[in-house]
């Protein structure tokens, strides 16, 4: 049976009326609650009588204060909830629902009509659902089944039944424009329509068009680790965002947005995805980059190279003498065998090799590194390593207490007392008097004894020293890491000796200047924490890692230990592994060992949605296993290659091509270069293009319009049209650049153009031969 368009229009109008009434009611409530909050804040102290004369008065004051604070917090919380609901309802006014299923549960006689939207809505009686939240159990039938037998997991157990019909609604400008019986239409009309549009400044939710395989990711709810491996444009990030919204709904009584962290590749990406959750009526999760975390932990001690500096080096310094050594170092330090090597090294420190620093006071060494080392290695070797360190710490604290006692008699203490300013003396007197329990009015008459003052001065002067000991700053972590790179180190196996020597030399030189290569940052921190114990953050319950192919085994080990209570969702695509450390690694096997096979699930996404079919037909042939990628059927032009003779011709062609693309309505156009260095040059030469922008690694927002950027910064984002600035053999001649080239090409949604100064890259040879890329006609 078909739906009656007119009746559906009328139903939509009825739902909109209910929505409007609900919006009016909530607007009134939020404004009233806001006034109440302001009132309570303003008159907070009028309602509380502050009297501390007697204990009873004091108690009464405390109770009064607490009551007022409670009233404020309750009103604030009601106001917050109402405002949140109101903003969701405002969004629902535009599109109250997008889908419907007609479902008959086994054993029931009636067919239920379930309308699905971004949030639920009940009728005036409060008994019946006019709209079901897309995350409700029954709504999963919409995403998972075609008409026929269907089931869903309800809190009380599995519900079986029959899906009679499935509909999609296209509502625009609050009007029902069309509706589709999805069991009759071929292809997905609404998905076609959504994907056919231009890109936006920010990513949007895909709630109305979630595909079955994506729904598995969104509702996946067991195990510790979910690994999603998917082709470029297969919706990994989109599904992950929807997944967060789903988890926030399902566990709304115990999971809050601030207990979820997304590790994103860069700030531009963070800004790009930051709209999805608010669009679904949820608060945003926390977002961070691994680099930010490393800086937070290491920047006091080292100047840490950032990942883009490392990439830029790899992409542009091939003619320097240290290049091959550095590359070998990056690969070695990013491997899982290096994780094992560092762990063995740490175990060896139980017997020998710990390096300590002298403990000094006023420039004099009071406990030497040698004494500390002796003490450490003379302890009972059967004690666990962390316990030995704890004991060492206790011994040091005790020892400096003794030295501190003797210190009081030293002349410098007397000198300090004499030099005390009036203010400092007053402060010291107040502190000492209060410590003795004196009342405020008695302080001024308190006679401070010189001994007492001396004790205080010494105590204060030694405070930083005690702090240093408590935080293990008497351990020379840099020295210990440096020692690992002594040529003779037996921990790194299978590395070519000459290469290993060169890697050691380069690493030690950097350390000597208090600098860390990016590839050393995670291993250094890992070793440090293996020694002193891992810092943990148990408040985080869910961790999402995007662009996971760019993480080293060290980084994952880290995340696992740092967030011991978190479940992890990891998204990646090895074809886009652009960092040099990833060469050779083509799967997520190391990830499976993180929590074990039975606590890990891997889901593959093969269908790619971002680009038109002709673009995907071309790009999937650029990578070895691209045959597995399935293009979504969306028509478009074949990618085009234009070979030019020199840069002058290149720039003139790009300028006219951009004007042509803009005439065709493409709003976001990216000129993607190999490196930042090439991007800068291109930007300067193309400065005549109106409003052209150069994106750099520190760019915080994803820009629309015409942009020039290095390929590695384009990760995760997309553009209406992509121009590969110079796809020549000269630039993309080396096999190691295949993945970066692929990443750049897969950013295009509707149009992909290659330019080549001279011979095109060998990556394009087959696609040109087989006609998946056409030569430009002029
Ligand atoms: N089910 C869907 N409905 C509508 N749009 C979708 C759907 N799935 C993916 N898309 C769109 O496809 C594009 C690519 O999605 P997304 O960025 O999530 O893919 P990805 O796998 O993370 O890509 P990459 O690895 O290349 O960064 C986005 O524009 C997204 O909105």
From TrEMBL:
Q: Which GO terms describe its cellular component?
A: cytosol
Gene3D superfamilies the record matches:
P-loop containing nucleotide triphosphate hydrolases (3.40.50.300)
Keywords tagged on the record:
ATP-binding, Coiled coil, Helicase, Hydrolase, Nucleotide-binding
Q: Does the keyword Nucleotide-binding apply?
A: yes
The residues listed in the UniProt record as binding ATP, with positions renumbered to this chain, are 230-237
Q: What is this protein called?
A: DNA helicase-2 / ATP-dependent DNA helicase PcrA
Q: Which domain of life is it from?
A: Bacteria
Q: Which NCBIfam families match?
A: HelD_BACSU (NF041464)
> Which SUPFAM superfamilies does the UniProt entry name for this protein?
P-loop containing nucleoside triphosphate hydrolases
Report the source organism: Sediminibacillus halophilus
Q: Which InterPro entries match?
A: DNA_helicase_UvrD/REP, HelD_bacillota, P-loop_NTPase, UvrD-like_ATP-bd, UvrD-like_helicase_C
> In its keyword annotation, does this UniProt entry include Glycosyltransferase?
no
Q: Which residues form the UvrD-like helicase ATP-binding domain?
A: 209-612
From which residue to which does any coiled coil extend? 9-36
GO terms under biological process: recombinational repair
Q: Name one GO molecular function term.
A: 3'-5' DNA helicase activity
């Amino acid at each position: 049976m078909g739906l009656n368009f007119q009746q559906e229009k009328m139903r939509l109008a009825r739902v909109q009326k209910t929505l409007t009434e609900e919006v009016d009611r909530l607007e009134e409530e939020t404004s009233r609650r806001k006034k109440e909050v302001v009132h309570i804040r303003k008159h907070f102290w009028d309602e509380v009588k502050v009297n501390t004369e007697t204990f009873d008065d004091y108690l009464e004051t405390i109770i009064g204060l607490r009551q007022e604070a409670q009233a404020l917090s309750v009103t604030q919380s009601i106001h917050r909830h109402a405002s949140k609901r109101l903003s969701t309802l405002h969004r629902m006014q535009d599109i109250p629902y997008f889908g419907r299923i007609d479902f008959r549960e086994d054993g029931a006689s009636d067919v239920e009509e379930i309308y699905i939207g971004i949030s639920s809505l009940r009728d005036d009686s409060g008994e019946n659902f006019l709209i079901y939240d897309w995350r409700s159990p029954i709504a999963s039938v919409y995403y998972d089944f075609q008409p026929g037998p269907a089931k869903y997991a309800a809190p009380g157990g599995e519900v079986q039944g029959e899906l009679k019909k499935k509909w999609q609604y296209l509502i625009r400008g609050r009007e029902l424009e069309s509706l589709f019986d999805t069991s009759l239409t071929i292809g997905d009309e609404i998905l076609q329509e959504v994907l056919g549009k231009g890109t936006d400044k920010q990513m949007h939710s895909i709630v109305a068009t979630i595909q079955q395989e994506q729904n598995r990711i969104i509702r996946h709810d067991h195990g510790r680790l979910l690994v999603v491996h998917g082709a470029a444009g297969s919706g990994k990030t989109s599904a992950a965002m929807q997944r967060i919204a789903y988890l926030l709904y399902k566990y709304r009584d115990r999971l809050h947005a601030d207990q979820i962290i997304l590790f994103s590749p860069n700030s531009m990406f963070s800004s790009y995805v930051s709209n999805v959750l608010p669009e679904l009526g949820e608060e945003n999760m926390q977002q961070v980059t691994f680099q930010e975390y490393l800086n937070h932990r290491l920047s006091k001690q080292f100047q840490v190279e950032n990942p883009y500096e490392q990439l830029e080096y790899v992409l542009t310094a091939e003619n320097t003498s240290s290049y091959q050594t550095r590359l070998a170092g990056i690969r070695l330090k990013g491997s899982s065998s290096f994780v094992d090597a560092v762990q063995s090294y740490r175990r060896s420190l139980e017997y020998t090799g710990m390096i300590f620093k002298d403990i000094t006071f006023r420039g004099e060494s009071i406990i030497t590194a040698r004494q500390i080392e002796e003490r450490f290695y003379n302890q009972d070797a059967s004690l666990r390593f962390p316990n030995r360190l704890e004991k060492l710490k206790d011994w040091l604290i005790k020892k400096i207490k003794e030295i501190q006692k003797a210190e009081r008699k030293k002349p410098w203490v007397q000198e300090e007392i004499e030099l005390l300013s009036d203010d400092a003396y007053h402060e010291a007197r107040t502190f000492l008097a209060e410590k003795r329990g004196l009342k405020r009015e008695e302080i001024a008459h308190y006679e401070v004894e010189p001994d007492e003052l001396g004790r205080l001065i010494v105590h204060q002067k030694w405070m930083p020293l005690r702090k240093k000991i408590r935080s293990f700053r008497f351990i020379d972590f840099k020295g210990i890491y440096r020692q690992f790179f002594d040529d003779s180190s037996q921990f790194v196996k299978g590395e070519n000796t000459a290469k290993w020597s060169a890697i050691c030399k380069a690493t030690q030189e950097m350390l000597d200047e208090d600098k860390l290569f990016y590839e050393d940052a995670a291993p250094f921190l890992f070793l440090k924490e293996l020694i002193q114990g891992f810092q943990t953050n148990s408040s985080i319950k869910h961790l999402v890692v995007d662009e996971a192919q760019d993480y080293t085994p060290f980084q994952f080990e880290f995340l696992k230990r740092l967030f011991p209570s978190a479940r992890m969702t990891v998204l990646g695509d090895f074809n886009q592994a652009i960092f040099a450390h990833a060469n050779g690694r083509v799967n997520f096997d190391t990830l499976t060992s993180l929590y074990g096979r039975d606590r890990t699930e891997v889901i593959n996404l093969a269908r790619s949605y971002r680009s038109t079919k002709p673009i995907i037909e071309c790009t999937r042939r650029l990578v070895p296993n691209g045959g597995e990628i399935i293009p979504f059927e969306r028509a478009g032009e074949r990618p085009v290659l234009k070979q030019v003779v020199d840069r002058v011709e290149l720039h003139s062609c790009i300028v006219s091509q951009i004007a042509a693309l803009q005439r065709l309505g493409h709003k976001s156009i990216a000129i993607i270069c190999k490196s930042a260095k090439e991007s800068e040059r291109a930007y300067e030469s193309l400065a005549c293009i109106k409003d052209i922008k150069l994106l750099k690694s520190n760019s915080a927002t994803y820009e629309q319009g015409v942009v020039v950027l290095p390929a590695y910064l384009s990760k995760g984002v997309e553009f209406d049209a992509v121009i590969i600035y110079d796809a020549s053999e000269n630039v993309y001649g080396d096999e190691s650049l295949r993945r970066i080239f692929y990443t750049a090409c897969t950013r295009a949604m509707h149009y992909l153009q290659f330019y080549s100064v001279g011979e095109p890259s060998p990556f394009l040879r087959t696609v040109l031969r087989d006609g998946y890329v056409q030569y430009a006609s002029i």
